[in-house]
Amino acid sequence: MSVRPTLPTADDLGRTWEGVRSRSPLVQCLTNVVATQRTADVLLAAGAAPAMVDNPHEAGAFARVASAVLVNLGTPQDATVEAKRLAVAAAREAGTPWVLDPVAAGGLAWRTEVARELVALGPSVVRGNASEVLGLAGGAGGRGVDATDSAESALEAARELSQRHGCVVALSGPVDHLVLGDEVVRLAHGHPWLTRVTAVGCSLGALVAACCAVAEDSLAAAATATAALTLAAEDAAARSAGPGSFAPALLDELAALTPEALAGRAVLA
Amino acid sequence: MSVRPTLPTADDLGRTWEGVRSRSPLVQCLTNVVATQRTADVLLAAGAAPAMVDNPHEAGAFARVASAVLVNLGTPQDATVEAKRLAVAAAREAGTPWVLDPVAAGGLAWRTEVARELVALGPSVVRGNASEVLGLAGGAGGRGVDATDSAESALEAARELSQRHGCVVALSGPVDHLVLGDEVVRLAHGHPWLTRVTAVGCSLGALVAACCAVAEDSLAAAATATAALTLAAEDAAARSAGPGSFAPALLDELAALTPEALAGRAVLA
Amino acid sequence: MSVRPTLPTADDLGRTWEGVRSRSPLVQCLTNVVATQRTADVLLAAGAAPAMVDNPHEAGAFARVASAVLVNLGTPQDATVEAKRLAVAAAREAGTPWVLDPVAAGGLAWRTEVARELVALGPSVVRGNASEVLGLAGGAGGRGVDATDSAESALEAARELSQRHGCVVALSGPVDHLVLGDEVVRLAHGHPWLTRVTAVGCSLGALVAACCAVAEDSLAAAATATAALTLAAEDAAARSAGPGSFAPALLDELAALTPEALAGRAVLA
């Protein structure tokens, strides 16, 4: 996928979402053990096909045939980190788009080193919260998986990462910032319960990968996935009693979200 | 458990389901990290007792005391594959029934080799979709965990596997085929949302294992588990808004399904 | 945290719960692969911040900055057991409270040895069912994760463990017994569906850890977490159709439970 300086429109997002529905991209997920079930459920609800292939024996071969690859650095172990490296190398050779989610980068030494090694290999998209983007860029890290820095404060770090590595940076927060070089697309959909359900951010990374497999460019892919998940969250919150019932409702609404509804409701600023 | 050429009746299924309820078999699950929580929830809803013992230090010893063992090949790692081998060896020695779920066999080289090694040891039941059964039997594999071949096309492969290894093959699809030698039992219950929720097939494998612990034979066990899950799916879909709310409803309905209702509603063809 | 001989009141429980809400303790969870998602969801619903850092490279460093640490012995593997040892050592040095959940202790040799090694290091709280407490104390173990011994029969073992290691023992069952030396606090809230949803006991261990981070003492922490989860269970069961819908409702009710409601409803005997 090439990057383009022109910004995606709401119609582009609708078309990308339609592509996920109709082409059912096969998304290889090398992710953490907390997020596996919810990530797979999100991909299935969206119409994509998840495959959690994260061992060193198979990860590289599978990255050559997958439609896209997600590399999430949560709960790393020696074998799964080796598998992530092999998957990235194979994805690069095969031209498979891949997404990096640097969970807790900056806050923990080992994974920060791995995250910086991988981002230098040029993912299509980096997805993280403010703390993680700051940590990956070299700033002070957060206290783990939750964001303690505001999205705005990390915007400069996102721009720098994007320019240095040629990738889109999807900076998650109350306002989502999708950054490509000097360009920024903002989306302000969603609901606070998104932060009260585990692995939603991780699932968003997988959904970005699914969109990368069918989108015209990585910026449209990141924007489509972000808009789809946050619009579905608005619908789900409206009919939920709390964060527990919100989680299955989010899957229902993601499955029910049409390309037309996404294009009609997404506000890009 | 011995196999018999006579086919199970709906009443046999009801009796097997009653056995799961009243005897609460202890099912050792060596399964993938995506499916663990949902698999355990399905077993608990059915009245069985799950135990996820999948390390090489303990897997063999536990297989000697478990009521049944599930060996699922998703997300294999070196240590868990070693544990699966030890569990199978111990189950065979102790006469514990065991079920093989060859996730993505045929599509990925390492696990295909492991799957073929294990199926040759004679599981009570092999459970898989069409791609996996074809892949295990030596045909062309699928693209991962979802079925890209029709159940019918895999029926011949299932027959061959059954005859070669003396096991029942539970071939999942829109119509479920339960194969023993030349005999086939067909069940056509269920709902498309079963394919939009992750790990339902994996959970079915565990439920087959639970039924193997109490059934008169492996064919009745496979038919009981399949009928229970797919009938519960029909009930769950009727009161769900999408695949998200369908998943917890499936557990509710599985817990509520009586032996009488199962025997009265299951249509075996 | 020091222990005190005076028993917590319902008002103490309300204050501890308020502390979890307002201070959002960072809880490092080294837990099993079945329980990760539900455990994180429970902590988020309660207002705490989960971080599943369970590899040997990072576990020790993180235990020095975490508010509390949960060490759960389910699904152990060599690397995660090493990480648990390192986390406990670091927690002790840093004075971080830590909770031990000896899943299936007594029933499986390897983890029983690990559990006995760790309990001798003086956790703030040990949480387990009757079989596990008996198994840890040296009695006959159960058949896995479910309790086959009554809470009362394990009370003497709990007292002995508490006195020998200076820890609170939270003995889960239809009546929960929170034991410190010769003192026992009893709570009899809850619902049978708590035993039909996987990883609820494991999640309770994590919630105990969250409460340890903010409570005046470990006994109040164990009582607060137990009361919160079991009172939320009563509310959730009242509006659920079965164990499937009970699980998300439990999270809703845990999120909705106010410190005032907890203090007003908890009956300590």
TrEMBL record, chains A, B, C:
Catalyses which reaction(s): 5-(2-hydroxyethyl)-4-methylthiazole + ATP = 4-methyl-5-(2-phosphooxyethyl)-thiazole + ADP + H(+)
Gene3D superfamilies, A to Z: 3.40.1190.20
The keyword Transport is assigned to this record: no
Chain residues that bind ATP: 127, 172
Cofactors (names): Mg(2+)
Family in the record: Belongs to the Thz kinase family.
Function as written in the Swiss-Prot or TrEMBL entry: Catalyzes the phosphorylation of the hydroxyl group of 4-methyl-5-beta-hydroxyethylthiazole (THZ).
Protein name: Hydroxyethylthiazole kinase
Organism: Ornithinimicrobium tianjinense
Gene: thiM
